[in-house]
Amino acid sequence: MSKKLLLAAAATAFLWVTPGVAQSPANQQESEADRQACTDDAFQHCGEAIPDRDRVYQCLVKKVKTISPACRKVISRPASNKR
Q: Within 10 A of 28 (CB to CB), how many other CB atoms are there?
């Protein structure tokens, strides 16, 4: 897979959910800043899960202590604040 395609996949690889409760696609909102905060972490810590949004999110949650502070802040916010 080309690096450009991988970057595009990572940019859409985040599913914002309340832990244990999935939201409908219409409620899945993330900002460009959120994507930028977590893209490097997704590649570094969860590359095997890309492009599966659910798996990337769950991986980042699982590795929350090892991801960057910026991504940790995004992942730790309640779903209603992820905009």
A: 17
Q: What is the 3-state secondary structure (H, E, C) of 29-42?
A: CCCHHHHHHHHHHH
The 10 Å Cβ neighbour count of residue 29 is: 12
Query: Backbone dihedral region of 16: left (phi > 0), alpha (psi from -120 to 50 degrees) or beta?
Result: beta
| pTM (global) more than 0.85 | no
**In sequence order, which residues have a C-beta less than 8 Å from that of residue 59 and are 6 or more positions away?**
42, 45, 46, 49
Distance of CA 22 to the CA centre of its chain: 14
Ordered by start, the domain boundaries in the chain are 3-16+28-81
Confidence bin at 50 (pLDDT 50/70/90): very high
Rg for the chain, CA atoms, rounded: 12
> Does 29 score more than 70 pLDDT?
no
